[in-house]
Write a structure and sequence with these properties.
362 residues, alpha/beta, N-(1-d-carboxylethyl)-l-norvaline Dehydrogenase, domain 2, eight-stranded mixed sheet, 18 helices
């Protein structure tokens, strides 16, 4: 297998910088793109081109190019890794599509139904390219950017599911990424990878059921420690069962939330989410700061919870906890997440039956 791939990482936040730093530290050429207007920190990073990873992973990497120009970022790249919040997918895809070439390997991390959206946008634009589109269920790292060129890695996941469209090239993509971090294993299809993002059950309920505490002291509120009580943990598992039952309707091999946490961060004898997030294996103990208008609602509800619920609706399933989260967050934010979030029409799959959708992603 070829070992000198050239990479582009689209996204300059926590996950994007961590991945770009990991790729560069292995000696690969990597371009880094940011769609936001240049800040003082970005300009320093563009001049110095160094990324430092600290914590459970320690490395230094020199990137090839740091740019706000998409053509420059992807012009010589073969592997394009998109690491931005789901609300930025559409903007990034619009900028990327004119520069796609046959042979490009696109990887969306985390997926959040991004492969479906990109394929729909390419079709609407009349763009036909011989490319692959992959998704991961989550980011490889629990991490936080602590300066313009440094990312603190709390913990690298032990294993991470990746799926590709078309499915026949998934092994090649996994082999490429495993040269960077040997943690990737195959999922059956991109729909499975999207629905195996457990943020949809770990994030909304602890925020929605702790709004008073968050508003009183958002800076010091710990989502996983202060936000997950015995009853909330129980409801997280109930919500996860809704997700798993939806997956069965599409013949997806979804992994339960507790099993994923143990797979990601280490096995122990925890019997539920509450016990795990308070265990020694958890990377979440010291994650402070939460906001009722933060991404645990404004990203996860419209771009993850909503499409998952709608897939359940298509399969004639009842999803009471998914429904409650969507409706309550919509009321709190004075918006309609069912209308304004990622619905099935936006993904180009509203007209498909469950069996047709499975064939589409396979």
């Amino acid at each position: 297998m070829k070992s000198d791939y050239r990479f582009a990482v689209l996204g300059c936040g926590n996950g994007g910088m961590a991945l770009a730093g990991a790729i560069a530290s292995k000696g690969y050429a990597v371009n880094v793109f940011d769609a936001l207007p240049p800040t003082e920190g970005f300009l320093k990073f563009a001049n110095e081109k160094e990324i430092f990873l600290e914590g459970s992973v320690n490395s230094r990497g020199i990137v090839n190019t740091v740019t706000n120009d998409m053509k420059t970022a992807v012009g010589d790249a073969e592997v394009i890794i998109i690491v931005v919040p789901a609300f930025a997918h559409e903007v990034i895809f619009e900028k990327l599509i004119p520069h796609l070439k046959d042979g490009h390997k696109i990887i969306v991390i985390p997926g959040n139904f991004g492969s479906l959206l990109l394929r729909k946008m390419m079709a609407a634009n009349g763009t036909e390219r011989d490319i692959s589109i992959s998704e991961c269920a989550s980011l490889p790292y629990a991490c936080r950017k602590v300066s313009y060129n440094t990312v603190e890695i709390y913990k690298q996941k032990n294993k991470l599911k990746l799926a590709t469209w078309p499915t026949g090239v998934n092994g090649e993509i996994i082999n490429i990424l495993n040269q960077i971090a040997g943690i990737f294993f195959p999922g059956n299809n991109v729909l499975e990878a999207s629905m195996d993002n457990i943020n949809c059950v770990l994030h909304p309920l602890p925020v929605l059921l702790n709004i008073g505490a968050i508003e009183r002291d958002s800076k010091n509120f710990r989502h996983y420690i202060d936000g997950i009580s015995p009853l909330i943990s129980e409801k997280i598992h109930d919500m996860d069962n809704e997700r798993l039952e939806i997956g069965k309707c599409y013949s997806l091999n979804l992994i339960p939330v507790l099993a994923q946490l143990k797979m990601y961060y280490g096995e122990n004898d925890s019997r539920n989410v509450l016990e795990y997030v308070n265990s020694d294996q958890s990377p979440y103990k010291n994650l402070y700061g939460q906001n009722v208008n933060g991404r645990y609602l404004t990203e996860d509800i419209p771009y993850l919870v909503t499409p998952t619920m709608l897939l359940g609706e298509k399969a004639l399933m009842d999803t009471p906890l998914f429904d409650i989260c969507i409706h309550l967050a919509s009321q709190l934010h004075n918006t309609n997440y069912l209308k304004n979030g990622t619905n099935l029409k936006k993904l180009g799959i509203d007209h498909m039956s469950c069996d047709q959708l499975l064939q589409y992603v396979m």
